Amino acid sequence: MSVNSSRFDSAIGWSTRPDAWGSRATRFLFSALAVILFCGPLLVIFSGAFDHNPDPTKLSVIPANPSLINFQVAAENKIWHYLMNSLIIAGGALLLQLTVSVFAAYALARKKFRGQAIALLVILATMMLPEEVIAIPLSLVIGDLPLVHVSLKGTLLGVILPLGAWGFSIFVMTEFMKEIPSELEEAAKVDGAGELRLFAQIILPLCKPALGVIAVFGFNMIWEQYLLPLIVAADPSDYTLTVALLALRSDDQVGTGIVLAGALLALVPSLVVYLSLQKSFLRGITTGAIKG
Question: Which residues cross the membrane (predicted)?
Fold first, then answer.
């Protein structure tokens, strides 16, 4: 039985012939609907942040009264201080998380030791624990750090340290390193390369796609933290931008436009990180899909 391939020459089986107006119109409508669903909220945030609108119930995609007043009032509410707290935490925690992930993955993927499978299982098990379950134990540990008996309450380090290791990042790096041919490692050892040189010059450069993936996901995970900064904070000045936005939202004296201005500021770092690591991120996702 023959099948006319021209009827199935598009991704969803619609004809792309020049005279197929119905198919084109349907694709256009579905594409426009997807754009509205994904970009609509972003346009509302952008418009509301720059719109001096006293009525919080009226939002539009085009600012009726363009103004920077919302950012000025947000600055008076210390929004830039909260943003700086978030940037310091995100930068420090992400750097620590990447370091822990690559070293842990190198040990799990390239070395053999007793209890290796159990160690990986324990790391993966940490991903199954909701934040609410570990909130109280984590609060006790942060309040009285074991061995040194130091309290990290009210410090940015108290937020950075618990985020320094993430099971997802370690798992992704481990699986990626396992795919690196062992012949490269053996050839480097024959040439006299030591353990550190082997890791820094052979293994790590080949893991750039995976580093892009865990950097993007890791930054978003850290940036979206709410419960941990709230636990560590000893004063409202210790809040991150995520926590401060909810506090501003619950304040009757603060308008919707001010909250949207803060939300717009919260979106910018995530977009910058993704656009900066887009090539590595896409290569890592594609490589994982092909290997899978």
Answer: 28-50, 87-108, 120-142, 154-177, 198-223, 254-277
Contact 101, 83 (CB under 8 A): no
Q: Confirm if 88 and 158 have CB atoms less than 8 A apart.
A: no
Q: Decide if 79 contacts 262 (C-beta within 8 A).
A: yes
Please list, in sequence order, all residues whose beta carbon lies within 8 angstroms of the beta carbon of residue 121, skipping any fewer than 6 positions away: none
Q: Could you please report the per-residue DSSP string of the chain?
A: ----GGGG-STTS----TT-HHHHHHHHHHHHHHHHHHHHHHHHHHHHHSB--S-TT---SS-SSB-SHHHHHHHHTTHHHHHHHHHHHHHHHHHHHHHHHHHHHHHHHH---TTHHHHHHHHHHGGGS-HHHHHHHHHHHHHS-TTT----TTSSHHHHGGGS--HHHHHHHHHHHHTS-HHHHHHHHHTT--HHHHIIIIIHHHTHHHHHHHHHHHHHHHHT--HHHHHH-SSGGG--HHHHHHHHHT-TTS-HHHHHHHHHHHHHHHHHHHHHTHHHHHHHHHHHHHH-
Q: What are the CA-CA distances from residue 73 to residues 39, 49, 64 (Å)?
A: 26, 11, 19
CA distance 225 to 235: 17
What is the rounded CA–CA span in Å between residue 41 and residue 45? 6
Output the pTM of the full model: 0.82
Tell me the per-residue pLDDT of 107-128, one tens digit each, with 9 for 90 and over.
999 888 888 889 989 988 888 8
Place of tokens 């979206």: 224
Task: List the structure tokens of 175.
Answer: 């699986």
